[in-house]
Amino acid sequence: MNNKFYELPEEKQMRIINAGFEVFAKNEYKKASTEEIASRANISKGLLFYYFHNKKSLYLFLYSYAEKLIKESIIDLHFNEITDFFELCEYAALQKYKLLHKSPHIMEFIMRAFYSQREDVSDDINKKFQNPTSGFLAKYFSKIDYSKFKPEINPQDILQMLIWMTDAISMKNKDKIPHLYLMN
The CATH number of the domain where 19 resides is what? Predict the structure, then answer.
């Protein structure tokens, strides 16, 4: 990626970022058109490739940016005061909802990236997620009072179920639901 991108006015950066989120969210990586991204961002395709040397570079930038934006939008001073597991889940959901006003397609993009398996970028994305809830629970739920859970209940299992339910609700139809949702 060319660092000149960061010298652009924020409004233009966000046009490019949001155009990328939208096109990659609605299409598989292979079928996502950089021409469409450039058009939606109101820039030339050549300029898009000036900032991002290729499609993969743009995609990986968008993924890292989305990950950072989501973390920054959720983790604030109030986040660290919450000790109830479900209250924290609700707080995170509300913060993500607010984020959608700035980047309407960010969550769709993240979900498609997370569940893509046979794309040219899948290996790069999957390296970031060996086990999506293992480190997440420890890091983001470190202030939680787990004494409210019955001893036989594993909070990590609860979190995984909530993630599955949220993702399943976000899916448009059953054909898009990953196979692990369909297991008994």
Answer: 1.10.357.10
